Amino acid sequence: MVKIRYFKIRLPRIGSLSDLADTSHKISDWSNINLLKASYGELIVMVTTTRELRTIQYLIDGSTVAGVAMTMEQHSIRLFRQGENFFLALLDPPRGAKIANDFLDVLLAGQEYFIEPLELSRAIIERHISSFESSRLVSAKVRDFQIYEKAIARLEVTSKEGLPPEIAPFLDGKFHRVDSLTYEVTHEFRKGLVNYSANGTIRISAPLVEIGFQTFEARL
Question: What pTM was computed for the model?
Fold first, then answer.
C-alpha cells in the first residue's frame, strides 16, 4: 500500500509557491533538498536525510566492538494549495513531523508558519469514500473506550461482511476515539483497501493509488 501523511499549514503571505521557491533561496544552496517541480499551486521536493545507527561487532574471541554506521533516507514532500488553504503531503512518512518542520524552516528562512496533522474527520472520510463506486467499512481501531470504572480499552473490530457506521452496538453513546478506519472499495473494476488514520495518514492499495489520492485532495 502507498502511504501519505497530510498536514495543514498556514504560511506567510506569498504570491505563489513557485515564487516562494525562486525567491526564498538559491536552489544551489539547498544541499539536501532537490527541487522537482514548482508551479503556482504546487511545490515538490526530494529531501535527503542522514542519521547515525549504533552498531556492535562480535569478534571471534567473544569480545565486542561498538561503532557507528551512517544511513541515508530520501523523502518526497509535496506542498500544494487547495482553494485558500495550503497542505503538505509526505510520502512514506517517518514517525513524527520533524522532517516536515525542518523542510519548512529551510524553505521559509525564519518566517513564521503553523503546521498540524490534517484531522481526518468522519465528514472528510465520507466525502472521499463517496468518490468510489462502492465501499464498505471492514475494520476499525478504537481507543479510550471505558469498559468499567478506571479501566479503558483499545480494540479492533473487523468484518469481511462490513461494519455499520457506528462500528459496534456497545460503542453507541459511549465515549471513544477512533484511531483508524479501513474500507474495502471498488472503482472501475479495480478493488482494494483505503485506510484512514487519526494522525492524518492515508494508505491506499496500489490499484487505486492514482484515483484515490487525486479525489481525496480534490475534496479538501
Answer: 0.84
